[in-house]
C-alpha cells in the first residue's frame, strides 16, 4: 500500500515537472514569437488612438474596450484555427503567406514615407474615422460609434493576421498543441498590451488637463507636460512604427527569398554580417545592426516597388472605369 502511494506520488511529481517544463516552453515560445511581431505591434499602438479622435471623452475607453474584444476575436476565434490548419496540413504555404504579410508591411511603411514627403496623396489606411462625431455617453450603440468600432476592428484584422502568421512562423517546429497554446498566449499578451497602452495614450490629455487645473504647482507642471507631450508621442510612435514595419517586412522578405531558393540576397547579407559578428565584445550587436540596416533598406525598396505597382494598377482601373 505504502509502495503504491509512493509510486503514485512519484508519478504526480514527474507530471508536475513535465507540466512546468511545458509551461516554460510555451512562455519561451511566446516570448520569441511576440518579439518578431514587434513591428506590427508598434504600428498598431500608433494607429488605434486615431479612431477615437472627436469622440466624447466618456466614450473613449468603452470604444477601446470594444475594439480590444474585437481584436481578440480576430486573433483567437478567426485567425488562429485557420493558420493552425494550414501549418498542420499545408506547411509549405507558411513562407509565401509570411512574405505576403511582409510585402504588406513594406507597402504600408513606404506609403507613409511617400505621404510624408508629399509624393503621393495622403489617405487614412483603411480607417473610416468620423471627425467630430461626438457620441452620447448613454448611446453606446449609436450608429457613429458602431461605425468607429467596425472600422477599427477591420483594420485590426489585417494587422492581427500579420502578427499571428509571424508568431506562428517562429514556432512552426513545435507540436500542434504547443503551437496553439503559444499563439493563444501571444494573442492575449499582445492584445492586452497594445490596447492597454492605447487606453493610456488616449486618456493622457484628459489626465494632463485634470492635473493642470489643480492649484498645486507640481501637478500643474506635470499636467501641462502631458498635454504638450501627447501629439509628440503619437508622432514618435508613428515614426518608430514606420521604420519597424520596413525593418520587419524587409527581414521577412530576406529570409523568405532564401527559403524559397533565391540565396543571393541572404548570402550577401551574411557575407557582411559574419565579420562583424566575429568581433569580440560587440560582435553580436554589430552583426545584428548589419542585418537590421540591410533589412530596412530592402524593406524600403520592396515597399516602394509595391507602392508603384499598386499605383499603376489603381490608375489603370480608374482609366478603364472612366
Notable characteristics:
81% helix, mainly alpha, disordered N terminus, single chain
What layout of secondary structure does this protein have?
Blueprint lengths: L1 H35 L1 H10 L9 H33 L4 H23 L26 H28 L5 H37 L4 H43 L4 H14 L5 H39 L1
Helix pairs in contact: 1-5, 1-6, 2-5, 2-6, 2-7, 3-5, 3-6, 4-5, 4-7, 4-9, 5-6, 6-7, 7-8, 7-9, 8-9
Characterise the protein shown here.
With 322 residues, the protein is mostly helical. The chain has helices at 2-36, 38-47, 57-89, 94-116, 143-170, 176-212, 217-259, 264-277, 283-321. Helix 2 runs antiparallel to helix 5, helix 4 crosses helix 5 and helix 7 (217-259) packs across helix 8. The longest helix is centred in the C-terminal third of the chain and has 43 residues, at 217-259.
Short description:
With about 325 residues, the chain is mostly helical. It is built from nine helices and no strands. Helices cover about 80% and strands about 0% of the residues.
Give the integer mean of the pLDDT values. Answer: 78
Name the quaternary structure. single chain
Return residue spans where pLDDT drops below 50 for at least 5 consecutive residues.
1-6, 8-23, 125-140
Give the biggest sheet.
none
Note the run of SSEs as H and E.
Answer: HHHHHHHHH
End-to-end separation: 89 Å
Q: How much of the polypeptide forms β-strand, as a percent range?
A: under 5%
The number of helical runs is: 9
Going by helix content, strand content and strand pairing, the class is: mainly alpha
Report Rg. 23 Å
Quantity of strands, as a count: 0
Shape: globular
Helix content: over 70%
